[in-house]
Design goal:
The protein is an alpha+beta fold. The chain has helices spanning 19-27, 37-45, 88-97, 115-120; strands at 2-5, 8-11, 48-54, 57-66, 71-79, 106-110, 123-125, 129-132. The radius of gyration is 14 Å and the shape is globular.
Length: 134
Protein backbone atom coordinates (compact mmCIF):
# COMPACT_ATOMS: atom_id res chain seq x y z
CA UNK A 1 0.00 0.00 0.00
CA UNK A 2 1.14 3.55 -0.66
CA UNK A 3 0.11 6.60 1.37
CA UNK A 4 0.82 10.14 0.14
CA UNK A 5 0.90 13.43 2.03
CA UNK A 6 2.45 16.53 0.51
CA UNK A 7 5.81 15.55 -0.94
CA UNK A 8 6.09 12.43 1.24
CA UNK A 9 5.09 8.80 0.73
CA UNK A 10 4.74 5.84 3.06
CA UNK A 11 5.01 2.30 1.73
CA UNK A 12 4.21 -0.88 3.64
CA UNK A 13 6.10 -3.08 1.21
CA UNK A 14 9.24 -4.78 2.48
CA UNK A 15 10.77 -4.43 -0.99
CA UNK A 16 10.78 -0.63 -0.58
CA UNK A 17 13.01 -0.77 2.51
CA UNK A 18 16.53 0.57 1.88
CA UNK A 19 18.55 -1.54 4.29
CA UNK A 20 21.53 0.81 4.60
CA UNK A 21 19.23 3.83 5.03
CA UNK A 22 17.37 2.07 7.85
CA UNK A 23 20.61 1.21 9.59
CA UNK A 24 21.70 4.86 9.29
CA UNK A 25 18.36 6.00 10.75
CA UNK A 26 18.63 3.55 13.63
CA UNK A 27 22.14 4.84 14.38
CA UNK A 28 20.39 8.13 15.27
CA UNK A 29 18.36 6.35 17.98
CA UNK A 30 19.14 5.61 21.61
CA UNK A 31 17.69 2.09 21.40
CA UNK A 32 19.24 0.65 18.23
CA UNK A 33 22.36 2.69 17.49
CA UNK A 34 24.66 -0.33 17.82
CA UNK A 35 22.65 -2.83 15.74
CA UNK A 36 24.66 -4.57 13.08
CA UNK A 37 23.51 -4.55 9.47
CA UNK A 38 22.77 -8.28 9.77
CA UNK A 39 20.50 -7.75 12.79
CA UNK A 40 18.69 -4.90 11.03
CA UNK A 41 18.23 -7.13 7.96
CA UNK A 42 16.84 -10.00 10.05
CA UNK A 43 14.41 -7.69 11.88
CA UNK A 44 13.12 -6.37 8.54
CA UNK A 45 12.69 -9.88 7.14
CA UNK A 46 10.52 -10.84 10.12
CA UNK A 47 8.31 -7.75 10.34
CA UNK A 48 5.75 -5.73 8.44
CA UNK A 49 7.75 -2.64 7.50
CA UNK A 50 6.68 0.93 6.86
CA UNK A 51 9.09 3.17 4.94
CA UNK A 52 8.73 6.95 4.77
CA UNK A 53 10.17 8.62 1.68
CA UNK A 54 10.78 12.09 0.34
CA UNK A 55 11.38 11.46 -3.34
CA UNK A 56 13.86 8.61 -3.60
CA UNK A 57 15.30 9.15 -0.10
CA UNK A 58 14.11 7.00 2.79
CA UNK A 59 13.77 9.41 5.71
CA UNK A 60 11.69 7.33 8.11
CA UNK A 61 11.05 3.78 9.16
CA UNK A 62 8.91 1.72 11.49
CA UNK A 63 7.91 -1.90 11.73
CA UNK A 64 5.25 -4.11 13.25
CA UNK A 65 6.03 -7.49 14.73
CA UNK A 66 2.83 -9.52 14.76
CA UNK A 67 1.34 -12.99 14.85
CA UNK A 68 -1.65 -11.64 12.84
CA UNK A 69 -3.93 -13.26 15.43
CA UNK A 70 -3.74 -11.38 18.70
CA UNK A 71 -0.83 -8.92 19.00
CA UNK A 72 0.95 -6.20 17.06
CA UNK A 73 4.15 -4.72 18.49
CA UNK A 74 5.16 -1.35 17.01
CA UNK A 75 8.94 -1.08 16.86
CA UNK A 76 11.74 1.14 15.61
CA UNK A 77 9.60 4.18 14.82
CA UNK A 78 12.14 6.75 13.63
CA UNK A 79 12.34 9.85 11.46
CA UNK A 80 15.62 11.28 10.16
CA UNK A 81 16.74 14.05 12.50
CA UNK A 82 16.61 16.60 9.62
CA UNK A 83 12.88 15.94 9.09
CA UNK A 84 11.64 15.84 12.68
CA UNK A 85 9.03 18.24 14.12
CA UNK A 86 7.01 18.25 10.89
CA UNK A 87 4.34 15.77 11.99
CA UNK A 88 5.88 12.94 9.99
CA UNK A 89 6.33 10.64 13.00
CA UNK A 90 2.69 11.18 13.93
CA UNK A 91 1.59 10.43 10.37
CA UNK A 92 3.76 7.29 10.16
CA UNK A 93 2.41 6.04 13.48
CA UNK A 94 -1.20 6.80 12.49
CA UNK A 95 -0.78 4.80 9.28
CA UNK A 96 0.59 1.87 11.27
CA UNK A 97 -1.99 1.97 14.06
CA UNK A 98 -4.90 2.27 11.63
CA UNK A 99 -3.77 -0.58 9.39
CA UNK A 100 -6.77 -2.96 9.16
CA UNK A 101 -4.54 -6.03 9.58
CA UNK A 102 -4.45 -5.40 13.33
CA UNK A 103 -7.63 -3.46 14.03
CA UNK A 104 -8.76 -5.93 16.68
CA UNK A 105 -5.29 -6.88 17.93
CA UNK A 106 -3.57 -5.85 21.14
CA UNK A 107 -1.22 -3.10 19.95
CA UNK A 108 1.72 -2.09 22.09
CA UNK A 109 5.08 -0.39 22.02
CA UNK A 110 7.88 0.30 24.45
CA UNK A 111 9.34 3.80 24.54
CA UNK A 112 11.28 6.19 26.73
CA UNK A 113 9.98 9.25 24.89
CA UNK A 114 7.11 10.72 22.82
CA UNK A 115 4.47 9.65 25.34
CA UNK A 116 2.30 12.64 24.42
CA UNK A 117 2.21 11.60 20.77
CA UNK A 118 1.30 8.01 21.56
CA UNK A 119 -1.36 9.02 24.09
CA UNK A 120 -3.03 11.21 21.42
CA UNK A 121 -3.09 8.15 19.16
CA UNK A 122 -5.00 6.09 21.73
CA UNK A 123 -2.16 4.38 23.58
CA UNK A 124 -2.32 4.03 27.35
CA UNK A 125 0.05 2.47 29.81
CA UNK A 126 2.96 2.71 32.12
CA UNK A 127 5.97 4.94 31.68
CA UNK A 128 7.61 2.72 29.03
CA UNK A 129 5.02 0.14 27.96
CA UNK A 130 2.08 1.59 26.09
CA UNK A 131 -0.84 -0.29 24.55
CA UNK A 132 -4.16 0.39 22.87
CA UNK A 133 -7.43 -0.83 24.22
CA UNK A 134 -8.69 -4.03 22.61
Amino acid sequence: MKYVKGGFQIYDEREKVQLESVQALLKQSYWANARSLNVVKTSIENSVCFSLYKGDEQIGFARVVTDFASVAYLADVIIDEHYRHQGLGKWLTEVMVNDPRWNDKFKFLVTDDAHGLYTRLGFIGSEKLMSTRV
